[in-house]
Amino acid sequence: MIRTAFAIVAVGAVIAACAPERQVSGRALYAEFCVSCHGTSGKGDGPAAAALGKAPADLTGIATRNGGQFPMAEVMSTIDGYTRRGDRSSVMPELGTVLQEGPLVMVDTGDGIATPTPANLVALANHLRTLQK
Ligand code: HEC
Asked: 99 falls in which pLDDT band (50, 70, 90)?
């Protein structure tokens, strides 16, 4: 009984210790997981881009393509949704597990409803917002 309680406390401590490490800035996440294809600027000119069968999207034009508004909810589900969709024509890798790690934050993407969303995903989408031309 005491041993079980100790194990639970220990696991809790490990989770608590890991969580902050995993929650990094959107810029750092982008540098780690997106730059190879989309490039530092987001224009789709990363070092791996030429080797892809399909050009990586120009991420600096997301708002322009959407009538000047950065579609936060759509961008987050685009990044995240790639993991679940099983679309074989999509070249983008599955990033869901990385993005799901770390804490959740409540986000209202404009519909007035706050939804628990992985903080890493929000940070990444916010970074993309800063790349808009
Ligand atoms: C292996 C190369 C590759 C990597 C790595 C990659 N992408 Fe992509 N991305 C693409 C390609 C290619 C497309 C065009 C659509 C498709 O084939 O999936 C795309 C499309 C997108 C789109 C849709 C843009 C639009 O306007 O339609 C977004 C948003 C996006 N990527 C964000 C990201 C983010 C954020 C990361 C890092 C977490 C990332 N991508 C990592 C190759 C990549």
From this structure: confident
